[in-house]
What does this fold into?
Amino acid sequence: MQVYLDNAATTKPCAEAVQAAVDAMTVNFGNPSSLHRAGLDAQLVMDSARRTIAASLGVEAGCITFTSGATESNNLALRGACAAYGKKRRKIVASAVEHASVDETLSALEAQGFEVCRVSPREDGRFYPEDFVNACDGNTVLLTMMAVNNETGYILPAKEVFTAVKRKFPDIITHCDCVQAFMKLPIKATSLGADLISLSAHKIHGVKGVGAIYIRKGVRLVPIVTGGKQEKGIRSGTESVPLIAAFGAAVEKLGKTIPKRREYTAELKAYLLEKLADVEGVTVNSPEDGSPYIVNISAAGKRSEIMLHFLESKGVYVSSGSACSKGQQSGVPAQFGITGKRADSALRISMTADTTREELDYFVQCLAEGISNVRG
Ligand code: PLP
It folds into this structure.
């Protein structure tokens, strides 16, 4: 039996996405910048995907720029906004639990002379809007905060934070990394209060290597990739029409079932937690009201990598911490009070609407076996 429970790392592309990519490679294979019919056909495919993604965020199609993925979207948001607005205002405020693609970019901006203030959760593991308002001042150019933490599933109060900060400092540019929330929770750009939103296709049954950034009308970003001025000059380079078409197809499919899938995965999460309660030594690290798609646990002090490979030997795929960190321990669990042996033995189980109770039963059975048999 093979049980894939690493969907926060990547998802299996859905049939609709695969078909859309194949069509764009075999039928509409033109370069969307070309002035002839083949180019126009590719352009139309891309326009359609752009409209679908824009509609899912409740915005105009012109506000969506395609990128190579959320890592690039996050880089463009942070570097582009700081280059455009950061001549005089030199401070950036961020949550202390951001993905490496944000956090490393913040460090690079720090090296360029920006002051970065990383706000931590309080002792209860939660963020409070007033902590962000207090961290911001007249010198602040940018506020960045993810919607859902990729390691624990904690849902950050991004909307509340953006609203409170904008009320006092309307000029601050707000950016939200929505990778783990998009198509899972209802995300609308205007009600979220974000000027910039990063998205990735491969977390939502699209294909790897494509993402998007929402840029609110009137917000200026200095491009980080220059060249042929595709994507209105914001992101040069021939667009990957097959990947974009697949992204659009995945959003078209998933956009219709966000509440239904959320309800189903919430039932799955409750079921999993109930089963885990019977396994000795398991601690649940995810908050009860976190994303139903992600459950972070610690397995009786057994080192994550050892347990991960034991589970792999049984055909069960999970992640230790964040998949992007490739075995490198991230500082995020500690921010949530997960330290020492609990951090060293943390595993992330991430589900989709295709996950079944039988798969979870098998995972729990293998985990229990691992806890009693695995050393270390
Ligand atoms: N942001 C978050 C929260 C993520 O979980 C990830 C991927 O793990 C990324 C950004 C990076 O996305 P991509 O793989 O599209 O570059």
